[in-house]
Amino acid sequence: MDDTELLLEVRGVSKSFPGVKALEDMHLDLRAGEVLGLVGENGAGKSTLMKLLSGIYDADAGEFFFAGAPYEPSSAKHALELGISIIHQEFNLMPDLTVAQNLFIGREGGFFTSERALNARAAELIERLHLPLRPKQLVGDLTVAKQQMVEIGKALSFEPRLLIMDEPTAALNDAEVDVLHELIRRFLTPETGVIYISHRMDELRRIADRITVIRDGRYVGTRNTAQTAMPEVISMMVGRELNLDAQPVGVREDREVVLQVAGLSTKDLLREVTFELRKGEILGFAGLMGAGRTEVARAVVGADRIDSGTITLRGREIKIANPAEAARHRIGYLSEDRKRYGLLLEQEVGANIGLSALAERFQSWGFVRDRAMRATAAEYVDTLRIKTPSVKQTAKNLSGGNQQKVVIAKWLVKDCDILIFDEPTRGIDVGAKEEIYRLLNQLAESGKSIVMISSELPEILRMSHRIVVMCEGRVTGTLDASEATQEQVMHYATLRAVAA
Amino acid sequence: MTAVRDRLQQFLAFGSLIAIFLFFSIASSSFLNYSNVTSILFSTVVIGLLALGTTFVIITSGIDLSIGTGMTLCAVISGVLIVNSGLPVWLGVLGTILFGGLIGLVNGFNVSFLGIPPFIATLAMMLVAQGLALVISDSTPIYFNDEPGYTAISTGHLLGVDFPNAVLVLGVATVIAAVVLNKTILGRYTYSIGSNEEATALSGISVRRWKLAIYTLAGLFTGLAGVMISARLASAQPGTGIGYELQAIAAVVIGGTSLAGGKGSIVGTLIGALIISVLNNGLQIMSIPQEWQNVILGAVILVAVYADMARKRRSTV
């Protein structure tokens, strides 16, 4: 380390949000002239680190050094001026503007813009970087890969010394990844460096000189790519400590198959997704962000359109055109984004619990039977131990865990047999998590069939009877949970399909 | 908590109504007397009915711009049914109200099944209704002079004293609207859709169908407003109608219903409509020109909505 100049140093940086320690005593060294791979599970703290580097957040403690000098950016613009360009996973592009307009947004040079001058500047930049773009194309008409190129072009037009890329290949195929890597290599000089955030081990092996692993907001270690086997990186990533106090019961072969999904494909992402769900089973869905797990759930309940594939419910093939039909078939979907897709935040707990079953249980001649609804809601508040002063409390005043229970209650009142949980414990504190786990187990014991989508591997391994692993819209493996290990799941989760 | 706050909102609107009322009572000696108060109520009827229907639409976070000219088209239809075709009055009235429902149904179909934004769908309907009213009537008013039974719907006195039937109609319509909004699943879904349309859909509710029903309901009120305005004027005036929709929307907004959806009440809307008529009446009595009345009304809307927003900001820390 002494023989090379450090381009970026992160020393003991911490950052907390109310209730969460996002980063704790974080370390990171980037040498000039290298590509550093940065890996960690979802929620490991990568995004927080990015936001600190781009000046969106301020660190609670610790220091940054960039090119030998203390680095304290006050805004994204300031970070750019200091020489750090960051390409976020979510594009910041205006689809209705042209490539040239996007590349130089905010830098048009004067109030009156000359389209011709802008196009000329863009053409020059595109030429210099060998980008497969034309200045006058509308960004909205470009493929995702080319949009990524626009982002890169924009980032490099600032002539940064450090380029940070967050999951740059999430939507790219192999050929496009090669083009991207070529661009990165051309950008690298002895004065510049790249931080390359990715989940994909095969890519990191090709592009990264060293790999730094972080977990739960902490620095775990750094390895030279050439001398390290990827399974070692994976086990650094997932960690060893596991608190498995309730081991899964194992495959329930004897149980009746309730739901069969075969060859499910959608226009956007899903390719031939096939799985079956048994009575009384918790079927875990593992995979990395963007693997298509939520999309499977949304397709099954009819929230998104299916291109091809069949859904068979108790031996009978059914068509589900919308969530109302799914609900009639007693299939309930509990979204990962409770506030957006699950709750009527401004309405009372009772109204939320009664919503799905309102028309069939709590009305006569169109008139709402409020008393009956509140009484039923109160029962579920008791049995699920929802902490609320009364069923008249407004839903937004409940904690995350209790809000989740309200959504669960809504589907239980509707008498659903199949419950699809998308990240059931996201944003819920540890104690409430245990309660949700107990509830899921009870539901399965009582004969409900549960699909549990989760990005937390320990949760998947602990709760599931069987595990479906997805990567890039495909099912890459189905494992018996009693034999599955984190490494195995990670292996399937990063198993990219052969070039599409 | 919500209930308390909603009540507070109504109290605020009600308080403003009282304040404005007291102001005019003191400022002008000819404001506070039985016949003037009755005439205020009488002049609230049409805007009030339109506002009641559109309250449902606005709570779903939609908007209905077609109610003004839609009302005029309904008035013309009423003339065609009763005057030109000689249908009995009750049947003509029923037909007119149902025709209003049809206008709403088309709006609802365009919004929920074709996915056209409510603003655009009802703007288009506003133009279509305006044009059709002129086409059907051949651009001439239709007079109900020979239909005393029809004009009595508005100006008759069923309650004996000097109390026009129109006010009675508004009262009954308000009660019906309040019951539907507060006590039925249609009302419950109206709030649900406005609170969170996606969550409502994912809860297994056919949002499209219910929105269709809500726009249709608003249309029925439009139809009734068409009956009431033509009965009051003893004629269907095909060239009018524009501007009523904005007054009605203003009444809903002053009454505390949020254009963002999910919140609102029938009582609030009624109070909003009354505030508008009291203002118009009082300013007229004080001989303030019509032009200035609009300026003042505009200012009242701004103040009402800003006060509502400021209060919400305080309560959500």
TrEMBL record, chain B:
Pfam family, one: BPD_transp_2
Membrane topology: Multi-pass membrane protein
Location in or out of the cell: Cell membrane
Alphabetically ordered keywords of this record: Cell membrane, Membrane, Transmembrane, Transmembrane helix
GO annotations of cellular component type: plasma membrane
GO molecular function: transmembrane transporter activity
Superkingdom to which the source organism belongs: Bacteria
Transmembrane segments: 12-34, 40-58, 65-83, 89-109, 116-136, 163-181, 212-235, 241-259, 266-286, 292-309
Protein name in the entry: ABC transporter permease
Protein species of origin: Solirubrobacter phytolaccae
Lineage, uppermost ranks: Bacteria, Bacillati, Actinomycetota, Thermoleophilia, Solirubrobacterales
